[in-house]
Amino acid sequence: MDAMDALVDALQCLPGVGPKSAQRMVYQLLKSKRQRGLHLAHCLQDAMIKVQACEKCANYTEGALCRICSDPARADRTLCVVESAADIVAIEHSQTYKGCYFVLNGKISPLDGLGPEEIGLPKLRDRVEHENIEEVIIALPTSVETHATYHFIQKILAPYAVQLTQLAHGIPSGGDLEYLDGYTISSALKNRAALNA
Amino acid sequence: MDAMDALVDALQCLPGVGPKSAQRMVYQLLKSKRQRGLHLAHCLQDAMIKVQACEKCANYTEGALCRICSDPARADRTLCVVESAADIVAIEHSQTYKGCYFVLNGKISPLDGLGPEEIGLPKLRDRVEHENIEEVIIALPTSVETHATYHFIQKILAPYAVQLTQLAHGIPSGGDLEYLDGYTISSALKNRAALNA
């Protein structure tokens, strides 16, 4: 296989890139962006080798601890449990949460061989036990696997005096009732709040 | 800037990739595709360095001559003039053309400092003069700059006994009249063909 075909093939490991768009990328890089292409190759190699999981929360970092775990201004008695490091970016973007995180290694899925150990729940228990954690906020999307994950987190943390909470379910900002699923609307009705309180 | 931010930035040199999709790509590569990410970095570097312009036609190649120019089965008395090497892929895909190619370095555009010399017309003249070219097919998209390019090609090849042709203009296969522009429809009407010939 020649270098161009190999590159068209390799680009398809990127999400959303198929054969047609990969080919367009290759021709455009070769035509007028060779320096930027070489720079991209360098950055890619760099990130794939240097970026590792934070020792405490499994967020991505180049050092031993991530930016958040090593920030003394963060409230380290509150942990927010997320499914992937990408979710941290979204939560940080909201600028509301000042605690720390714990990234699960996926969600419970017996068919894929992912049990409580595999997704890192023992490590979560250790942190709760040794770091005087006061609240664990579960911030996982709603799905069948997530329900199993909730269940195991509750079970594993039962012996500790820690408050377990989950993100509120309801209508998203800008969400049009017409297009929302039944489960979301039923959650929003169940959790309705008093206006004249 | 850390390695992840640098990669999110660098990925945006790819056509159709903005900040959001670049971030999604980085997280997905880090999560489960590190080996493929490293392979992509390698292929990218390889292609950016090795792939050069064919000495005869300026198509992309890793050797001195491209696959087409070095194929003795191709009719080397016919040249098809295209605007970019990517157009060769599309024409080859149609499996109708058995001649050779000549890739222009863009199109005439005085505002961008691109005159006949810059886009490589003297080289086209040299090939016509020294290689007994019998037909030059102009396969450029229709635009104001292309008209200027046509004009210069005609002028530069006027002294030689070479047939100049251009691709037929008309309705594309599957093209819906309702959505076609006036110029295309007027070309299709002007060049209409007899059915009972």
Description:
2 copies of one chain form a homodimer. Chain A is an alpha/beta fold and 197 residues long. The first copy, chain A, has 7 helices and 6 strands; from the N terminus they run αααβββαβαβαβα. Chain A has helices spanning 3-11, 19-32, 34-50, 85-93, 121-130, 144-157, 182-190; strands spanning 52-53, 60-61, 75-82, 99-103, 135-138, 163-166. A 4-stranded parallel sheet of chain A has the order 4-3-5-6. Chain A has a two-stranded antiparallel ribbon with strand order 1-2. In chain A, strand 1 and strand 2 form a beta hairpin. In chain A, helix 1 (3-11) crosses helix 2, helix 2 crosses helix 3 (34-50) and helix 5 (121-130) packs parallel to helix 6. Chain A is globular, with a radius of gyration of 21 Å. The model of chain A has no long low-confidence stretch (mean pLDDT 89). At the A-B interface, helix 1, helix 2, helix 3 and helix 4 of A face helix 1, helix 2, helix 3 and helix 4 of B.
The general outline of chain A is globular
Could you state the oligomeric state of the chains shown? homodimer
What distance lies between the first and last C-alpha atoms of chain A, to the nearest angstrom?
70 Å
What is the strand arrangement across the widest sheet of chain A?
4-3-5-6
Number of strands of chain A: 6
What's the arrangement of secondary structure elements?
2 copies of one chain form a homodimer.
Chain A: H1 3-11, H2 19-32, H3 34-50, E1 52-53, E2 60-61, E3 75-82, H4 85-93, E4 99-103, H5 121-130, E5 135-138, H6 144-157, E6 163-166, H7 182-190
Parallel strand pairs in A: 3-4, 3-5, 5-6
Antiparallel strand pairs in A: 1-2
